[in-house]
Write a structure and sequence with these properties.
With 106 residues, the protein is mainly alpha-helical. Helices cover 54% and strands 0% of the residues. It has helices spanning 15-24, 31-42, 51-64, 77-85, 94-105.
Length: 106
Amino acid sequence: MKAVREPKKKNYAKPHQMLSDILIGKGSNQKEHIFGSVVDAARPALSEFEAQDLSNLAYAIAIADVPVPPFDDGSALFDRIAEKSLPLLGEMDHQRLSNLIWSFGE
């Protein structure tokens, strides 16, 4: 009988690195489920999002690189974020604006 080899466990020096690997790591088998739940929760509240909320949502979805199904009318999440963000651009500081622009480039 051949011995079963346990998968090698990563030694995490910092807890945020472990969370990052789980949420957005290349081998993560949880990120589509997790970010799918985030998008599902955000959809009905998107009209109430403020500048930072929109920037954070766009950035999180872009960095996770997960597929996002369209809305019932066929529009994409990023189209809705862009539509809602335009009137709020003046409220965004440089970091929020930079994250938002980067997200659309991904």
